Q: What sequence folds into this?
């Protein structure tokens, strides 16, 4: 049970990080394609882009659920040990 909880926590955290990195990369790519160029001070996340969010939100939520499940398993396995 301990290994499963560690795998769930690690896998969920990695999935969240990869998804967030993909979201940042997409926004940086879109910013670079802008006709006026892009500077770090003008860069912002496009939260209103629902087409991209349809792709990035489900794996991020899945990663959060996996991480939370791993944490719950870890806590419950500790409370049942003598």
A:
């Amino acid at each position: 049970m301990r290994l499963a909880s560690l795998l769930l926590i690690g896998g969920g955290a990695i999935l969240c990080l990869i998804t967030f990195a993909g979201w940042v990369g997409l926004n940086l790519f879109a910013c670079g394609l802008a006709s006026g160029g892009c500077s770090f001070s003008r860069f912002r996340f496009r939260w209103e882009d629902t087409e991209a969010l349809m792709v990035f939100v489900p794996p991020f939520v899945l990663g959060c659920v996996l991480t939370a499940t791993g944490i719950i398993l870890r806590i419950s396995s500790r409370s049942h040990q003598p």
